Protein backbone atom coordinates (compact mmCIF):
# COMPACT_ATOMS: atom_id res chain seq x y z
CA UNK A 1 0.00 0.00 0.00
CA UNK A 2 1.40 3.35 -1.06
CA UNK A 3 2.33 5.76 1.73
CA UNK A 4 1.10 9.34 1.18
CA UNK A 5 3.37 10.90 3.76
CA UNK A 6 4.29 14.53 3.11
CA UNK A 7 4.49 17.78 5.00
CA UNK A 8 1.15 18.61 6.64
CA UNK A 9 2.22 22.23 6.88
CA UNK A 10 2.36 22.60 3.12
CA UNK A 11 0.55 25.70 1.92
CA UNK A 12 -1.17 23.47 -0.62
CA UNK A 13 -3.20 21.68 2.05
CA UNK A 14 -6.18 22.45 4.24
CA UNK A 15 -4.92 21.75 7.77
CA UNK A 16 -7.40 21.89 10.65
CA UNK A 17 -7.62 21.07 14.35
CA UNK A 18 -10.96 19.84 15.69
CA UNK A 19 -12.04 21.95 18.66
CA UNK A 20 -15.23 19.98 19.31
CA UNK A 21 -18.45 21.37 20.69
CA UNK A 22 -18.47 24.96 21.80
CA UNK A 23 -20.95 26.64 24.16
CA UNK A 24 -21.25 30.37 24.70
CA UNK A 25 -23.75 33.05 25.63
CA UNK A 26 -25.95 34.16 22.73
CA UNK A 27 -25.70 37.67 21.32
CA UNK A 28 -29.07 37.36 19.58
CA UNK A 29 -31.56 36.23 22.20
CA UNK A 30 -29.35 37.58 25.04
CA UNK A 31 -29.85 34.44 27.08
CA UNK A 32 -28.19 34.30 30.47
CA UNK A 33 -26.76 30.80 30.01
CA UNK A 34 -24.45 29.18 27.49
CA UNK A 35 -27.25 28.41 25.07
CA UNK A 36 -25.41 29.06 21.80
CA UNK A 37 -23.98 25.70 20.72
CA UNK A 38 -21.70 25.12 17.76
CA UNK A 39 -18.89 22.88 16.57
CA UNK A 40 -15.49 24.48 16.00
CA UNK A 41 -12.39 23.90 13.90
CA UNK A 42 -9.15 25.83 14.02
CA UNK A 43 -7.75 26.20 10.51
CA UNK A 44 -3.99 26.54 10.04
CA UNK A 45 -4.67 26.79 6.31
CA UNK A 46 -7.56 26.01 4.02
CA UNK A 47 -8.00 25.97 0.25
CA UNK A 48 -10.70 28.12 -1.32
CA UNK A 49 -12.39 25.03 -2.76
CA UNK A 50 -12.54 23.34 0.63
CA UNK A 51 -13.91 26.49 2.26
CA UNK A 52 -16.53 26.80 -0.48
CA UNK A 53 -17.65 23.24 0.34
CA UNK A 54 -17.70 24.06 4.05
CA UNK A 55 -19.92 27.07 3.41
CA UNK A 56 -22.30 24.81 1.53
CA UNK A 57 -22.49 22.60 4.62
CA UNK A 58 -23.35 25.47 6.98
CA UNK A 59 -19.89 26.57 8.19
CA UNK A 60 -18.57 30.13 8.58
CA UNK A 61 -15.29 31.59 9.75
CA UNK A 62 -14.18 34.25 12.23
CA UNK A 63 -10.53 34.84 11.48
CA UNK A 64 -8.98 31.37 11.45
CA UNK A 65 -11.72 29.85 13.60
CA UNK A 66 -14.40 27.89 11.68
CA UNK A 67 -17.73 27.22 13.33
CA UNK A 68 -21.03 25.57 12.55
CA UNK A 69 -24.17 25.83 14.71
CA UNK A 70 -25.62 22.63 16.08
CA UNK A 71 -28.96 23.55 14.60
CA UNK A 72 -31.20 21.22 16.58
CA UNK A 73 -29.56 22.20 19.90
CA UNK A 74 -28.62 25.88 19.73
CA UNK A 75 -31.01 28.56 20.97
CA UNK A 76 -31.00 30.54 17.70
CA UNK A 77 -30.66 28.28 14.64
CA UNK A 78 -28.62 30.03 11.94
CA UNK A 79 -29.36 29.19 8.31
CA UNK A 80 -26.83 29.97 5.60
CA UNK A 81 -28.43 32.44 3.16
CA UNK A 82 -27.36 33.22 -0.39
CA UNK A 83 -28.53 34.99 -3.53
CA UNK A 84 -27.88 34.22 -7.19
CA UNK A 85 -26.52 37.56 -8.37
CA UNK A 86 -27.92 37.34 -11.91
CA UNK A 87 -31.46 36.85 -10.52
CA UNK A 88 -31.31 39.78 -8.09
CA UNK A 89 -34.28 42.16 -8.27
CA UNK A 90 -33.59 45.42 -6.37
CA UNK A 91 -36.48 46.80 -4.34
CA UNK A 92 -37.56 50.44 -4.43
CA UNK A 93 -35.83 51.02 -1.12
CA UNK A 94 -32.59 49.54 -2.43
CA UNK A 95 -32.76 51.73 -5.53
CA UNK A 96 -33.25 54.74 -3.27
CA UNK A 97 -29.93 53.88 -1.61
CA UNK A 98 -28.22 54.19 -5.00
CA UNK A 99 -29.91 57.52 -5.67
CA UNK A 100 -29.05 58.89 -2.24
CA UNK A 101 -25.38 58.08 -2.72
CA UNK A 102 -25.35 59.70 -6.17
CA UNK A 103 -27.00 62.85 -4.83
CA UNK A 104 -24.48 62.99 -2.01
CA UNK A 105 -21.57 62.72 -4.43
CA UNK A 106 -23.16 65.37 -6.64
CA UNK A 107 -23.44 67.74 -3.69
CA UNK A 108 -27.23 67.91 -4.01
CA UNK A 109 -28.17 65.93 -0.89
CA UNK A 110 -29.14 68.14 2.02
CA UNK A 111 -28.14 66.72 5.39
CA UNK A 112 -28.69 68.33 8.77
CA UNK A 113 -25.23 67.68 10.18
CA UNK A 114 -22.52 68.72 7.70
CA UNK A 115 -19.19 66.89 7.64
CA UNK A 116 -15.91 68.43 6.61
CA UNK A 117 -14.25 65.91 4.32
CA UNK A 118 -11.26 68.14 3.84
CA UNK A 119 -9.96 67.74 7.38
CA UNK A 120 -9.17 64.04 7.10
CA UNK A 121 -5.65 63.63 8.55
CA UNK A 122 -5.13 60.40 6.61
CA UNK A 123 -5.80 61.84 3.17
CA UNK A 124 -2.19 62.83 2.60
CA UNK A 125 -0.99 59.28 3.20
CA UNK A 126 -2.94 57.90 0.24
CA UNK A 127 -1.57 57.77 -3.26
CA UNK A 128 -2.99 56.97 -6.66
CA UNK A 129 -5.99 58.53 -8.35
CA UNK A 130 -7.67 59.98 -5.28
CA UNK A 131 -9.51 63.23 -5.85
CA UNK A 132 -8.18 66.30 -4.05
CA UNK A 133 -11.52 68.10 -4.16
CA UNK A 134 -12.54 69.76 -0.90
CA UNK A 135 -15.91 71.15 0.05
CA UNK A 136 -16.24 74.84 0.78
CA UNK A 137 -16.30 75.41 4.53
CA UNK A 138 -18.90 78.17 4.20
CA UNK A 139 -21.35 75.80 2.62
CA UNK A 140 -20.26 72.68 4.47
CA UNK A 141 -20.12 69.38 2.66
CA UNK A 142 -23.67 69.44 1.41
CA UNK A 143 -25.36 71.85 -0.96
CA UNK A 144 -29.00 72.70 -1.54
CA UNK A 145 -30.25 71.20 -4.74
CA UNK A 146 -32.26 74.23 -5.88
CA UNK A 147 -29.57 75.63 -8.19
CA UNK A 148 -28.83 72.29 -9.83
CA UNK A 149 -32.48 71.32 -10.17
CA UNK A 150 -33.26 74.64 -11.83
CA UNK A 151 -30.55 74.00 -14.42
CA UNK A 152 -31.93 70.53 -15.12
CA UNK A 153 -35.45 71.94 -15.40
CA UNK A 154 -34.21 74.52 -17.90
CA UNK A 155 -32.67 71.84 -20.09
CA UNK A 156 -35.85 69.74 -19.84
CA UNK A 157 -37.98 72.77 -20.76
CA UNK A 158 -35.90 73.52 -23.83
CA UNK A 159 -35.82 69.91 -25.01
CA UNK A 160 -39.60 69.73 -24.62
CA UNK A 161 -39.99 72.90 -26.69
CA UNK A 162 -37.83 71.45 -29.45
CA UNK A 163 -39.99 68.34 -29.67
CA UNK A 164 -43.21 70.40 -29.66
CA UNK A 165 -41.96 72.55 -32.54
CA UNK A 166 -41.11 69.45 -34.57
CA UNK A 167 -44.60 68.02 -33.89
CA UNK A 168 -46.25 71.27 -35.03
CA UNK A 169 -44.10 71.25 -38.16
CA UNK A 170 -45.41 67.75 -38.92
CA UNK A 171 -48.99 68.94 -38.51
CA UNK A 172 -48.34 71.94 -40.80
CA UNK A 173 -46.90 69.62 -43.46
CA UNK A 174 -49.90 67.33 -43.26
CA UNK A 175 -47.88 64.36 -42.01
CA UNK A 176 -50.02 64.23 -38.87
CA UNK A 177 -53.78 64.67 -38.71
CA UNK A 178 -54.70 68.33 -38.22
CA UNK A 179 -57.54 69.57 -36.08
CA UNK A 180 -56.77 67.34 -33.10
CA UNK A 181 -55.32 68.36 -29.76
CA UNK A 182 -51.98 66.60 -29.36
CA UNK A 183 -50.35 66.42 -25.93
CA UNK A 184 -47.38 68.58 -25.10
CA UNK A 185 -44.04 66.84 -25.03
CA UNK A 186 -42.74 65.78 -21.63
CA UNK A 187 -39.03 65.14 -21.15
CA UNK A 188 -37.83 63.44 -18.01
CA UNK A 189 -34.39 63.10 -16.50
CA UNK A 190 -33.12 59.50 -16.29
CA UNK A 191 -31.74 58.69 -12.83
CA UNK A 192 -28.30 57.19 -12.31
CA UNK A 193 -29.87 54.08 -10.80
CA UNK A 194 -31.98 53.44 -13.88
CA UNK A 195 -28.99 53.98 -16.14
CA UNK A 196 -27.09 51.45 -14.06
CA UNK A 197 -29.88 48.91 -14.53
CA UNK A 198 -30.32 49.59 -18.23
CA UNK A 199 -28.76 47.74 -21.10
CA UNK A 200 -25.11 48.07 -21.94
CA UNK A 201 -24.26 51.31 -23.70
CA UNK A 202 -26.88 53.42 -21.92
CA UNK A 203 -24.57 54.81 -19.23
CA UNK A 204 -24.67 58.25 -20.87
CA UNK A 205 -28.46 58.42 -21.19
CA UNK A 206 -29.56 61.67 -19.51
CA UNK A 207 -33.10 62.47 -20.68
CA UNK A 208 -35.98 60.65 -22.34
CA UNK A 209 -39.43 61.45 -23.72
CA UNK A 210 -42.36 59.12 -24.32
CA UNK A 211 -44.28 61.64 -26.46
CA UNK A 212 -44.50 59.15 -29.34
CA UNK A 213 -46.65 56.84 -27.22
CA UNK A 214 -48.97 59.71 -26.32
CA UNK A 215 -49.29 60.83 -29.95
CA UNK A 216 -50.01 57.28 -31.11
CA UNK A 217 -52.66 56.85 -28.41
CA UNK A 218 -54.30 60.18 -29.34
CA UNK A 219 -54.42 59.22 -33.02
CA UNK A 220 -56.02 55.88 -32.18
CA UNK A 221 -58.69 57.52 -30.06
CA UNK A 222 -59.59 60.06 -32.74
CA UNK A 223 -59.90 57.49 -35.50
CA UNK A 224 -63.51 56.77 -36.34
CA UNK A 225 -64.67 53.18 -36.52
CA UNK A 226 -65.03 53.56 -40.29
CA UNK A 227 -61.53 54.90 -40.70
CA UNK A 228 -60.19 52.10 -38.52
CA UNK A 229 -61.98 49.48 -40.60
CA UNK A 230 -60.66 50.96 -43.84
CA UNK A 231 -57.20 51.10 -42.37
CA UNK A 232 -57.36 47.43 -41.44
CA UNK A 233 -58.68 46.46 -44.86
CA UNK A 234 -56.05 48.38 -46.77
CA UNK A 235 -52.65 47.46 -45.38
CA UNK A 236 -50.77 47.53 -42.14
CA UNK A 237 -48.26 50.09 -43.47
CA UNK A 238 -50.27 53.07 -42.23
CA UNK A 239 -50.76 51.38 -38.90
CA UNK A 240 -47.01 50.84 -38.61
CA UNK A 241 -46.43 54.49 -39.52
CA UNK A 242 -48.62 55.48 -36.59
CA UNK A 243 -46.91 53.17 -34.10
CA UNK A 244 -44.92 54.76 -31.24
CA UNK A 245 -41.71 53.31 -32.66
CA UNK A 246 -42.28 54.83 -36.11
CA UNK A 247 -43.37 58.21 -34.70
CA UNK A 248 -40.33 58.34 -32.40
CA UNK A 249 -38.00 57.59 -35.29
CA UNK A 250 -39.54 60.37 -37.43
CA UNK A 251 -39.38 62.91 -34.63
CA UNK A 252 -35.78 61.95 -33.84
CA UNK A 253 -34.78 62.36 -37.48
CA UNK A 254 -36.38 65.83 -37.59
CA UNK A 255 -34.76 66.86 -34.31
CA UNK A 256 -31.35 65.99 -35.73
CA UNK A 257 -32.05 68.03 -38.88
CA UNK A 258 -33.93 71.04 -37.53
CA UNK A 259 -32.70 71.58 -33.98
CA UNK A 260 -29.13 72.48 -33.21
CA UNK A 261 -28.70 70.78 -29.86
CA UNK A 262 -25.17 70.80 -28.52
CA UNK A 263 -23.92 68.28 -26.00
CA UNK A 264 -26.46 65.57 -26.85
CA UNK A 265 -26.81 62.73 -29.30
CA UNK A 266 -30.43 61.83 -30.03
CA UNK A 267 -31.65 58.30 -30.67
CA UNK A 268 -35.03 56.59 -30.90
CA UNK A 269 -35.37 53.42 -28.85
CA UNK A 270 -38.57 51.35 -28.90
CA UNK A 271 -40.83 54.40 -29.07
CA UNK A 272 -38.78 56.59 -26.73
CA UNK A 273 -36.79 59.63 -27.77
CA UNK A 274 -33.54 59.46 -25.81
CA UNK A 275 -30.96 62.18 -25.28
CA UNK A 276 -27.45 60.92 -24.58
CA UNK A 277 -24.43 62.82 -23.37
CA UNK A 278 -21.65 63.26 -25.88
CA UNK A 279 -19.23 63.79 -22.98
CA UNK A 280 -17.57 60.83 -21.26
CA UNK A 281 -18.19 59.58 -17.73
CA UNK A 282 -21.42 61.45 -17.14
CA UNK A 283 -22.60 60.26 -13.77
CA UNK A 284 -24.79 62.92 -12.23
CA UNK A 285 -27.07 65.90 -12.50
CA UNK A 286 -24.13 68.22 -11.95
CA UNK A 287 -23.19 67.81 -15.60
CA UNK A 288 -26.40 69.34 -16.93
CA UNK A 289 -24.81 72.77 -16.93
CA UNK A 290 -22.40 71.57 -19.64
CA UNK A 291 -25.26 70.97 -22.08
CA UNK A 292 -26.85 73.98 -23.77
CA UNK A 293 -29.26 74.38 -26.65
CA UNK A 294 -27.56 76.85 -28.97
CA UNK A 295 -30.53 77.42 -31.25
CA UNK A 296 -34.26 77.44 -30.93
CA UNK A 297 -35.95 75.81 -33.90
CA UNK A 298 -35.99 78.37 -36.70
CA UNK A 299 -34.13 80.95 -34.61
CA UNK A 300 -30.54 81.98 -34.17
CA UNK A 301 -30.88 83.07 -30.57
CA UNK A 302 -29.13 81.36 -27.72
CA UNK A 303 -31.22 79.47 -25.19
CA UNK A 304 -31.86 80.90 -21.79
CA UNK A 305 -29.95 77.99 -20.29
CA UNK A 306 -26.79 79.04 -22.10
CA UNK A 307 -27.19 82.67 -21.04
CA UNK A 308 -27.59 81.80 -17.38
CA UNK A 309 -25.03 79.05 -17.06
CA UNK A 310 -22.51 81.27 -15.30
CA UNK A 311 -24.87 82.99 -12.85
CA UNK A 312 -24.22 80.44 -10.08
CA UNK A 313 -20.98 78.73 -9.07
CA UNK A 314 -20.61 75.12 -10.16
CA UNK A 315 -21.57 72.56 -7.55
CA UNK A 316 -18.43 70.71 -6.54
CA UNK A 317 -18.70 66.97 -6.93
CA UNK A 318 -17.08 64.35 -4.74
CA UNK A 319 -15.46 61.15 -5.85
CA UNK A 320 -16.20 57.68 -4.55
CA UNK A 321 -13.42 55.16 -5.06
CA UNK A 322 -13.62 51.44 -4.35
CA UNK A 323 -10.35 49.66 -3.64
CA UNK A 324 -10.08 45.89 -3.32
CA UNK A 325 -6.99 44.77 -1.40
CA UNK A 326 -5.88 41.48 0.09
CA UNK A 327 -6.56 41.08 3.78
CA UNK A 328 -3.84 42.72 5.85
CA UNK A 329 -3.56 45.04 8.83
CA UNK A 330 -4.11 48.70 7.98
CA UNK A 331 -3.88 51.29 10.83
CA UNK A 332 -6.47 53.51 9.14
CA UNK A 333 -8.92 50.62 8.83
CA UNK A 334 -8.37 49.69 12.46
CA UNK A 335 -9.03 53.27 13.60
CA UNK A 336 -12.30 53.27 11.63
CA UNK A 337 -13.26 49.86 13.03
CA UNK A 338 -12.56 51.00 16.59
CA UNK A 339 -14.71 54.10 16.16
CA UNK A 340 -17.49 52.07 14.56
CA UNK A 341 -17.58 49.46 17.33
CA UNK A 342 -17.67 52.03 20.09
CA UNK A 343 -20.29 54.32 18.52
CA UNK A 344 -22.53 51.82 16.75
CA UNK A 345 -22.18 48.75 19.00
CA UNK A 346 -21.39 50.64 22.21
CA UNK A 347 -18.25 48.59 22.88
CA UNK A 348 -15.89 49.86 25.55
CA UNK A 349 -12.38 50.85 24.40
CA UNK A 350 -10.75 47.96 26.26
CA UNK A 351 -12.77 45.45 24.22
CA UNK A 352 -11.79 46.89 20.82
CA UNK A 353 -8.11 45.98 20.83
CA UNK A 354 -5.76 45.61 17.91
CA UNK A 355 -5.24 41.94 18.69
CA UNK A 356 -8.99 41.18 18.70
CA UNK A 357 -9.39 43.12 15.44
CA UNK A 358 -6.59 41.13 13.83
CA UNK A 359 -8.07 37.80 14.99
CA UNK A 360 -11.52 38.79 13.82
CA UNK A 361 -11.11 40.56 10.49
CA UNK A 362 -7.48 40.37 9.35
CA UNK A 363 -6.24 36.85 10.05
CA UNK A 364 -7.36 34.33 7.46
CA UNK A 365 -6.54 30.68 6.77
CA UNK A 366 -7.58 30.94 3.11
CA UNK A 367 -4.81 30.14 0.65
CA UNK A 368 -4.58 32.84 -1.99
CA UNK A 369 -5.07 31.77 -5.61
CA UNK A 370 -3.51 34.03 -8.24
CA UNK A 371 -5.60 35.30 -11.16
CA UNK A 372 -5.61 33.35 -14.39
CA UNK A 373 -6.73 33.87 -17.96
CA UNK A 374 -8.44 30.51 -18.33
CA UNK A 375 -11.89 31.68 -17.26
CA UNK A 376 -11.56 30.15 -13.81
CA UNK A 377 -10.07 32.85 -11.56
CA UNK A 378 -11.05 36.59 -11.56
CA UNK A 379 -8.41 39.35 -11.92
CA UNK A 380 -8.16 39.83 -8.15
CA UNK A 381 -7.66 36.11 -7.49
CA UNK A 382 -9.37 34.00 -4.83
CA UNK A 383 -8.90 34.55 -1.11
CA UNK A 384 -9.70 37.05 1.66
CA UNK A 385 -10.03 40.75 0.84
CA UNK A 386 -10.91 44.14 2.25
CA UNK A 387 -13.06 46.37 0.02
CA UNK A 388 -12.39 50.02 0.89
CA UNK A 389 -14.93 52.78 0.21
CA UNK A 390 -13.12 56.11 -0.09
CA UNK A 391 -14.84 59.48 -0.58
CA UNK A 392 -12.52 62.31 -1.59
CA UNK A 393 -9.58 60.58 0.03
CA UNK A 394 -11.37 59.69 3.26
CA UNK A 395 -11.96 56.06 4.22
CA UNK A 396 -15.66 55.79 5.12
CA UNK A 397 -16.30 52.03 5.04
CA UNK A 398 -14.55 48.66 4.76
CA UNK A 399 -16.20 45.45 3.61
CA UNK A 400 -14.46 42.25 4.68
CA UNK A 401 -15.15 39.54 2.11
CA UNK A 402 -13.99 36.16 0.88
CA UNK A 403 -13.90 35.56 -2.88
CA UNK A 404 -14.29 31.88 -3.64
CA UNK A 405 -14.79 29.74 -6.76
CA UNK A 406 -18.56 29.84 -6.43
CA UNK A 407 -19.35 33.03 -4.57
CA UNK A 408 -18.46 36.28 -2.88
CA UNK A 409 -18.98 35.62 0.83
CA UNK A 410 -19.68 38.77 2.83
CA UNK A 411 -18.14 38.55 6.29
CA UNK A 412 -18.49 41.99 7.89
CA UNK A 413 -18.74 45.70 7.18
CA UNK A 414 -17.73 48.61 9.37
CA UNK A 415 -18.27 52.26 8.50
CA UNK A 416 -17.90 55.81 9.70
CA UNK A 417 -20.87 56.61 11.97
CA UNK A 418 -20.99 60.14 10.53
CA UNK A 419 -22.11 58.60 7.25
CA UNK A 420 -25.00 56.53 8.62
CA UNK A 421 -27.43 58.54 6.46
CA UNK A 422 -25.94 56.89 3.34
CA UNK A 423 -27.04 53.39 4.43
CA UNK A 424 -23.58 52.06 3.68
CA UNK A 425 -24.55 48.55 4.74
CA UNK A 426 -27.12 48.35 1.98
CA UNK A 427 -24.98 50.23 -0.50
CA UNK A 428 -22.02 47.90 -0.01
CA UNK A 429 -24.28 44.85 -0.40
CA UNK A 430 -25.53 46.21 -3.73
CA UNK A 431 -21.96 46.87 -4.83
CA UNK A 432 -20.90 43.35 -3.88
CA UNK A 433 -23.81 41.85 -5.82
CA UNK A 434 -22.78 43.94 -8.82
CA UNK A 435 -19.20 42.74 -8.40
CA UNK A 436 -20.33 39.13 -8.72
CA UNK A 437 -22.25 39.95 -11.90
CA UNK A 438 -19.32 41.79 -13.43
CA UNK A 439 -16.78 39.07 -12.66
CA UNK A 440 -18.76 36.12 -13.98
CA UNK A 441 -17.10 36.70 -17.34
CA UNK A 442 -13.72 36.03 -15.70
CA UNK A 443 -14.82 33.11 -13.54
CA UNK A 444 -17.75 31.14 -14.88
CA UNK A 445 -18.47 29.39 -11.58
CA UNK A 446 -18.69 32.63 -9.62
CA UNK A 447 -22.47 33.12 -9.41
CA UNK A 448 -23.61 33.60 -5.82
CA UNK A 449 -23.57 36.20 -3.09
CA UNK A 450 -23.44 34.68 0.42
CA UNK A 451 -24.77 36.90 3.20
CA UNK A 452 -23.70 34.79 6.16
CA UNK A 453 -26.32 33.41 8.54
CA UNK A 454 -30.01 34.19 8.63
CA UNK A 455 -31.75 33.92 12.02
CA UNK A 456 -35.51 34.16 11.59
CA UNK A 457 -36.12 34.78 15.29
CA UNK A 458 -33.82 37.82 15.26
CA UNK A 459 -35.52 40.86 13.74
CA UNK A 460 -32.23 42.59 13.01
CA UNK A 461 -31.21 39.72 10.72
CA UNK A 462 -34.36 39.67 8.60
CA UNK A 463 -33.13 42.45 6.31
CA UNK A 464 -30.96 39.85 4.57
CA UNK A 465 -33.99 38.16 3.01
CA UNK A 466 -34.99 41.51 1.46
CA UNK A 467 -32.29 40.85 -1.16
CA UNK A 468 -34.64 38.96 -3.43
CA UNK A 469 -34.78 36.13 -4.41
CA UNK A 470 -32.68 34.58 -1.63
CA UNK A 471 -32.54 30.96 -0.53
CA UNK A 472 -31.68 29.12 2.69
CA UNK A 473 -29.59 26.01 3.20
CA UNK A 474 -31.42 22.96 4.58
CA UNK A 475 -29.51 21.94 7.75
CA UNK A 476 -30.03 18.22 7.13
CA UNK A 477 -29.59 17.51 3.41
CA UNK A 478 -27.72 20.70 2.46
CA UNK A 479 -30.19 21.52 -0.30
CA UNK A 480 -31.06 25.13 -1.11
CA UNK A 481 -34.68 26.15 -0.51
CA UNK A 482 -36.31 29.40 -1.66
CA UNK A 483 -36.84 31.79 1.21
CA UNK A 484 -40.50 32.31 0.37
CA UNK A 485 -41.05 28.57 0.86
CA UNK A 486 -39.02 28.46 4.05
CA UNK A 487 -40.53 31.47 5.74
CA UNK A 488 -43.98 30.03 6.67
CA UNK A 489 -42.17 27.08 8.26
CA UNK A 490 -39.81 29.28 10.26
CA UNK A 491 -42.75 31.38 11.44
CA UNK A 492 -43.94 28.28 13.32
CA UNK A 493 -40.70 26.68 14.45
CA UNK A 494 -37.08 27.81 14.88
CA UNK A 495 -35.45 24.62 13.64
CA UNK A 496 -36.89 23.12 10.49
CA UNK A 497 -35.56 20.52 8.05
CA UNK A 498 -36.43 22.72 5.10
CA UNK A 499 -36.03 20.13 2.37
CA UNK A 500 -38.77 17.98 3.92
CA UNK A 501 -41.40 20.61 3.20
CA UNK A 502 -40.13 22.64 0.27
CA UNK A 503 -41.57 20.34 -2.41
CA UNK A 504 -44.96 20.20 -0.67
CA UNK A 505 -45.67 23.93 -0.91
CA UNK A 506 -48.65 24.90 -2.99
CA UNK A 507 -47.58 27.02 -5.99
CA UNK A 508 -50.27 29.66 -5.65
CA UNK A 509 -49.84 30.07 -1.90
CA UNK A 510 -46.12 30.43 -2.49
CA UNK A 511 -46.71 33.29 -4.93
CA UNK A 512 -48.86 35.18 -2.43
CA UNK A 513 -46.29 34.48 0.24
CA UNK A 514 -43.59 36.05 -1.94
CA UNK A 515 -45.45 39.33 -2.17
CA UNK A 516 -46.26 39.34 1.54
CA UNK A 517 -42.71 38.46 2.51
CA UNK A 518 -41.04 41.04 0.31
CA UNK A 519 -43.40 43.83 1.39
CA UNK A 520 -42.90 43.07 5.07
CA UNK A 521 -39.16 42.65 4.73
CA UNK A 522 -38.83 45.95 2.91
CA UNK A 523 -40.86 47.60 5.65
CA UNK A 524 -38.69 46.05 8.34
CA UNK A 525 -35.58 46.95 6.37
CA UNK A 526 -36.54 50.62 6.23
CA UNK A 527 -37.32 50.65 9.92
CA UNK A 528 -33.88 49.32 10.81
CA UNK A 529 -31.94 51.47 8.41
CA UNK A 530 -31.43 54.52 10.59
CA UNK A 531 -30.83 52.64 13.83
CA UNK A 532 -28.33 49.95 12.98
CA UNK A 533 -28.04 49.02 9.32
CA UNK A 534 -25.27 46.56 10.17
CA UNK A 535 -24.01 44.53 7.25
CA UNK A 536 -23.68 41.49 7.02
CA UNK A 537 -22.63 39.13 9.76
CA UNK A 538 -23.62 40.21 13.22
CA UNK A 539 -22.74 36.69 14.27
CA UNK A 540 -19.09 37.51 13.62
CA UNK A 541 -19.21 40.07 16.41
CA UNK A 542 -20.81 37.49 18.65
CA UNK A 543 -17.75 35.38 17.91
CA UNK A 544 -15.52 38.04 19.42
CA UNK A 545 -17.74 38.48 22.45
CA UNK A 546 -17.66 34.78 23.16
CA UNK A 547 -13.87 34.73 23.31
CA UNK A 548 -14.24 35.76 26.94
CA UNK A 549 -14.22 33.52 29.99
CA UNK A 550 -17.87 32.82 29.28
CA UNK A 551 -16.67 30.55 26.49
CA UNK A 552 -16.63 26.80 26.93
CA UNK A 553 -15.21 24.15 24.63
CA UNK A 554 -16.19 20.50 24.75
CA UNK A 555 -13.66 18.45 22.77
CA UNK A 556 -15.71 15.30 23.16
CA UNK A 557 -17.97 14.11 20.36
CA UNK A 558 -20.83 16.40 19.54
CA UNK A 559 -23.05 13.75 18.01
CA UNK A 560 -24.51 16.15 15.44
CA UNK A 561 -27.72 14.71 14.04
CA UNK A 562 -28.00 17.50 11.47
CA UNK A 563 -25.10 16.29 9.39
CA UNK A 564 -27.21 13.46 8.00
CA UNK A 565 -24.14 11.23 7.73
CA UNK A 566 -24.07 7.68 9.00
CA UNK A 567 -20.90 6.44 10.64
CA UNK A 568 -18.76 5.96 7.59
CA UNK A 569 -15.53 4.24 6.78
CA UNK A 570 -12.65 6.07 8.43
CA UNK A 571 -9.96 4.33 6.40
CA UNK A 572 -9.25 7.28 4.09
CA UNK A 573 -9.57 10.11 6.62
CA UNK A 574 -6.43 12.22 6.17
CA UNK A 575 -4.45 12.69 9.38
CA UNK A 576 -1.46 14.95 9.99
CA UNK A 577 1.12 13.74 12.49
CA UNK A 578 4.64 15.07 13.17
CA UNK A 579 5.01 16.81 9.82
CA UNK A 580 3.55 13.96 7.76
CA UNK A 581 0.10 13.16 6.49
CA UNK A 582 -1.27 9.64 6.39
CA UNK A 583 -4.57 7.88 5.91
CA UNK A 584 -6.17 6.56 9.06
CA UNK A 585 -5.75 2.98 7.85
CA UNK A 586 -1.96 3.56 7.80
CA UNK A 587 -1.98 4.70 11.43
CA UNK A 588 -3.68 1.61 12.81
CA UNK A 589 -0.40 -0.28 12.92
CA UNK A 590 1.32 2.50 14.90
CA UNK A 591 -1.09 2.83 17.86
CA UNK A 592 -2.39 0.53 20.55
CA UNK A 593 -6.04 -0.41 20.89
CA UNK A 594 -6.81 2.16 23.63
CA UNK A 595 -5.27 5.01 21.66
CA UNK A 596 -6.99 3.88 18.47
CA UNK A 597 -10.41 3.75 20.15
CA UNK A 598 -10.01 7.32 21.37
CA UNK A 599 -8.77 8.55 17.98
CA UNK A 600 -11.54 6.74 16.16
CA UNK A 601 -14.15 8.43 18.36
CA UNK A 602 -12.66 11.83 17.55
CA UNK A 603 -12.44 11.11 13.83
CA UNK A 604 -16.08 9.96 13.67
CA UNK A 605 -17.19 13.21 15.27
CA UNK A 606 -15.02 15.15 12.84
CA UNK A 607 -16.28 13.22 9.82
CA UNK A 608 -19.90 13.83 10.80
CA UNK A 609 -19.51 17.60 10.89
CA UNK A 610 -17.37 18.10 7.77
CA UNK A 611 -18.59 15.22 5.62
CA UNK A 612 -16.81 12.22 4.15
CA UNK A 613 -15.37 14.06 1.14
CA UNK A 614 -13.75 16.86 3.13
CA UNK A 615 -12.47 14.46 5.79
CA UNK A 616 -10.46 12.75 3.05
CA UNK A 617 -9.13 16.05 1.60
CA UNK A 618 -8.44 18.21 4.65
CA UNK A 619 -5.65 17.25 7.02
CA UNK A 620 -6.89 16.42 10.52
CA UNK A 621 -3.92 17.63 12.53
CA UNK A 622 -2.74 15.69 15.58
CA UNK A 623 0.25 17.98 16.03
Automatic annotation (TrEMBL):
Residue ranges constituting the N-end rule aminoacyl transferase C-terminal domain according to the UniProt record: 332-474
The keyword Plastid is assigned to this record: no
N-end aminoacyl transferase N-terminal domain segment(s): 24-94
Superkingdom of the organism of origin: Eukaryota
Alphabetized SUPFAM superfamilies for the sequence: Acyl-CoA N-acyltransferases (Nat)
Gene Ontology MF term list: arginyl-tRNA--protein transferase activity
Broad class of enzyme this protein falls into: transferase
Reaction catalysis annotation: an N-terminal L-alpha-aminoacyl-[protein] + L-arginyl-tRNA(Arg) = an N-terminal L-arginyl-L-aminoacyl-[protein] + tRNA(Arg) + H(+)
Enzyme Commission code(s) on record: 2.3.2.8
Alphabetical keyword list: Acyltransferase, Transferase, Ubl conjugation pathway
Protein name: Arginyl-tRNA--protein transferase
